[in-house]
Amino acid sequence: MEPLTCYNQFFVDAKGAVVLLRGVNLGGSSKLPMQPNGSTHLMQNESFRKHRDVSFVGRPFVEEEAEEHFSRLQKWGFNFLRFVVTWEAIEHRGPGIYDEEYIRYLVRMIKLAEKKGFYIWIDPHQDVWSRFTGGDGAPGWTLETIGIDIQNLKHSGLTFVQHEMAEKYKTQMWYLNYQKYPTASMFTLFFAGSILAPFLLIDGQNIQHYLQTHYTKAMTHLAKKISRFKNILGFGSFNEPSPGYIGRHNLKEYRGMGFGLQEAATPFQEMFLSEGNPQKIELRLFYGKKGIPMWKKLLNPDGVSIWKQGKFCVWRMHGVWNYDPNGAPMLLRPDYFSKNKGKKIEFYRDCLKPFFQTYHQGISTVRKRFRIFIENEPGNKWLDWQSKNKDGSLVAINSSHWYEVGLLFSKKYLEWFAIDLFAARPVFGSKKATEVYEKNILEISKVSRERMQNAPTVIGETGIPMDLNAKQGYVQQDYRKHEKVLDRIYRVMEKYLLYVAIWNYTADNTHATGDNWNGEDLSIYSLDTPAEVDKDGGRTVVAFSRPYPKKTCGEPISLSFDIENKVFKYSFKRGKFAIGSCVIYIPPIHYSQGFKVLLNAGSYSYNAKTYELHFQGEKGIEVYGISIQVKD
Questions:
Q1: Is 101 designated active site?
Q2: Which entry of 88, 240, 377, 494 is annotated as an active-site residue?
Q3: Whole-model pTM?
Q4: Which of these, 429, 577, 427, 561, lies nearest to 486 by C-alpha position?
Q5: 3-class DSSP state of 83
């Protein structure tokens, strides 16, 4: 394989041919240790108690099965992997101590992926900071560094963790941890510790620099180990970053969102709770951002402090709140997190972008060609990046995520309903729902064009729950609704010639436990799915395994695929090439009985082993048109 670069909206090879990338996130259970098994549904989760003595070797799949999984993905047409790793997987043993056995395993997996023809971007994944706060990502010692006793979190009412809550844990509950004290505090310290926690020093460094330095060094260490591989496009900066408390104007307000009944403890209440003070908090019935007060609930009735002996709330340390003479809490600075020296704090401008720049400096010391794939907090499309490399190539790639959040959180598909993510409002009617998909994805790509020097847009995550509509897909063996909604998404990607990586492929997914992480079940593969011809354990293969031009000597103009009639159309200009040409993937699931090709000029050949159609244009033709249909 050869390295790719980019000067505009497309990745190109050394000859200037456009390479389109159809990707998948690999894999869903890579968020969790392999030994002891960190699957979140396991009630006796030893990986929590002995969090420094875990191993991620075997994620995304055990080595003996790697060839099988890569071959399956290759057959489905994927040529690009958003390869999921976590900070914890690399540096779980302690600050500066790297798991070299795991890194050697990654090197072997990347080497095999290169052999199989996959381009890769490394995704340092996280959700709600860490496994210990209900998600994944950061090592346990990051919490211990600021004085938190991880073992006390489960008794405090300040985290929603599946294995601790058992049957009380509800679908997509993990997301609520973004509003909880441990998660919000860690994000605030990571991105704005120097501004908002100046007194919190670790080994002589402010907590922000301490955490960011360790994170960047860990990823840079990995970059060095894999720098020889030409299929590595670069590194993600930080998956779905959250501002934590940054920008909060009133600590007496709850700013969460969701669906159904949920706790609405304010940041101020949770600061008080963190020191072992029981609190009555409000329960609200939510639909999106709107919540109706219902009744109250007592949190932390046993008065458990999350702090180690001699430690206390970092925000009380900084004068945000304190106790009055009677021991009651006093909020002293309700707008503490919204201003610095009288100036409004803006998360992206003041916190996230400076981190991106520092992180890129670290990664680029290993290889200048390594791009950084950046994204803003979920639901916020705005990014900007203006710097280039000395050769004029682009440094940053827009890798924003997009889901239809109503479907994602409710696990119900209604063709006539969708939520406009960026307007934060519902829309009704089939036509308007379809328009929302296009409108939101187009807005993301507009940011790439107008604020990031026409950088490529890679939708880093999108996908659908496979347990939609009461698990209709695998209970009734009926994935028609799944295929319809996924086709909606891919049609937009094709219309605007965007790159995409679907979430996700989980090698150990089962119908009973899903992706083995917090009840999610989005994997396009399952061990329990019958290995039918062309599907091979896949779910919704009809929708995601689509024809597309893998490489084009020319300039792409338009791309479409009619999934019902199995009609593929592609047109491109020859551009700077004397004669245009392209390589098109032909998915066997759609064309197993053969196909016919219609051309305005040129000729083609077909490689049945690789499912690739090789088109060669003619001289004197400026625009080529190719149509592929099922054989009569």
A1: no
A2: 240
A3: 0.96
A4: 561
A5: strand
